[in-house]
Write the structure tokens for this entry.
Amino acid sequence: MDITALNAQKTTPVAPMIDPFGRAITYLRVSVTDRCDFRCTYCMAEHMTFLPKKDLLSLEELDRLCSTFIDKGVRKIRLTGGEPLVRKNIMHLIGSLSRHIEAGALDELTLTTNGSQLSRYAEELAACGIKRINVSLDTLDAEKFKTITRWGDLAQVLRGIDAAQKAGIHIKLNAVALKGFNDHEVPDMLRWAHGRGMDMTLIETMPMGEIDLDRTDQYLPLSMLRASLARQFTMTDIPYQTGGPARYVQISETGGRLGFITPMTHNFCENCNRVRITCTGTLYMCLGQEDAADLREPLRASADNALLSEAIDNAILRKPKGHDFIIDRRHNRPAVSRHMSVTGG
């Protein structure tokens, strides 16, 4: 069945998904590809082996999966990767999923991107109802950007940000805090982002997948970085939420917001409303645990969604209370074997 036919398919809403700890699952993150045109040092090895393209779900299958989750109470979908905009014909999927926004069944369709393809797709994304995106950007120094991404071009990313803002898309910058690399640059990045009307979020590096570096050399607790920033900025905790795990402060000197995502020093599991699907149809109930459920088999086993819905329900009942991330000299191996690009951030 193609996406056009899916658009006309009617489904019957069912009860919302509640996990064993009483948390409603309303946020779905979907990795549409494990491939990326960068090789960020904290995320991937330089020479990655990616999944065979034949193993990936088709765009039609991804649409059906997302639509089933919407019928089961999901109100926000974020497309991730790898880099989602390198997936062939990705705008066909985004355009189709936008029907749920128009129908009022979905509050937000968004994506996280490295920005490399934004200048190409910004206007189309805006036309599909994308109002807000996250752009991963760890430095504004072109040479350091080349170092951290291995293959990236900062100028290309900045052109993409320009194009997205021109198209009316609000941007939030995501920066992974890396000790000795970008920690001293954060104040200037913050001023730059807020000066352009962009929020910014700082993220602690997470022990996922084998990389070419020792993460203990990269890891910077955000409690330390926040204390450093407090010497330059007046920060006030605010209840602002975007549906994700960030805790926000208002910066008096810039008028903008700064978020902190702290999976290591202060995990955000108590209010977790998220599950993640890989591009092969594997559902991970927690980013930091290996337990998963195969949705590809029930998806392909029947033309209706009964088996798929049952598999989702069974998986949600196994959602754990939280993750067990640790980074120190005694725990310098990945907490989980898969790379972030497999699950989607």
